[in-house]
Design a protein that fits this description.
The structure is a single chain. The chain is built from five helices and no strands. With 131 residues, it is an all-alpha fold. It has one domain: Nucleotidyltransferases  domain 2 (Four Helix Bundle (Hemerythrin (Met), subunit A), Up-down Bundle).
Length: 131
């Protein structure tokens, strides 16, 4: 990977870290906004997948669908395939929790689980894509 591409990948992963920091900050709040935690977990995973695609000279789909993105990275990161069912649920947090017309408030357990999945996926991706 050339240095320009590596810098773009680093930017994707920095943005991922910002999402994860938002989650950590929100989990220490007195009243935890679970929708926000879940949204940032979805966003972190999306950015990890997109960074992995850039690192492997692949086109990025303009989608928030984590299952679609998993399909896109499956040959690069096959160890992520067991997460498909969880990613289907977490994908809903990319849009479903953002607007009151589809009001959905995840439980604290769901929010913590989404965060844990994001951390697991981050570990897998960063261990495979060395910059």
């Amino acid at each position: 990977m050339d240095e320009v591409t590596a810098e773009v990948v680093r930017q994707w992963f920095r943005k991922t870290e910002h999402d994860l920091q938002n989650i950590r900050n929100n989990l220490t709040a007195e009243n935890i906004p679970t929708d926000t935690v879940c949204f940032h977990a979805q966003q972190a995973i999306e950015k990890l997948f997109k960074g992995a695609l850039v690192a492997n000279a692949r086109n990025i789909s303009k989608t928030h669908d984590l299952v679609k993105l998993l399909t896109d990275v499956a040959d690069i990161l096959p160890e992520l395939l067991p997460y498909e069912e969880q990613l289907e649920d977490i994908s809903e947090y990319g849009v479903g929790v953002r607007y009151p017309d589809d009001f959905f408030e995840p439980t604290l357990a769901e929010a913590r689980h989404a965060y844990e999945v994001a951390l697991e996926i981050e570990s897998i991706v960063l261990n495979r894509i060395r910059l």
